[in-house]
Write a structure and sequence with these properties.
97 residues; mainly alpha; rod-shaped
């Protein structure tokens, strides 16, 4: 019995098997990716992430204002300004005479 090229001992064409494997590889990747990705869910997650980002940015602005306001006493600043003005006037009158 003469050996035929491109065939296994059982008579299967190796070229045909290679083509089938290559085709199956391409199809499986697309099918697997498609079955694992829910487009609607991804869109929903993206929208939620954008909303959270916007909300966090707004909260960050508000926190800065609140923090600044809680650390600054307007009455104390006015008092310090008045004292500084009084000292300034006092010092300038000393040197005018």
């Amino acid at each position: 019995m003469a050996k035929q090229t491109n065939k296994t001992a059982s008579g299967t064409s190796t070229q045909h098997v290679k083509q089938q494997n290559a085709q199956a590889s391409k199809n499986n990747f697309g099918t697997e990716f498609g079955s694992e990705t829910n487009v609607q869910e991804v869109k929903q997650q993206n929208a939620q992430a954008a909303a959270n980002k916007s909300q966090n940015a707004q909260a960050s602005k508000n926190n800065f204002g609140t923090e600044f306001a809680s650390e600054t006493s307007a009455q104390e600043v006015k008092q310090q300004n008045a004292q500084a003005e009084a000292k300034k006037n006092q010092n300038s009158s000393k040197y005018q005479g």
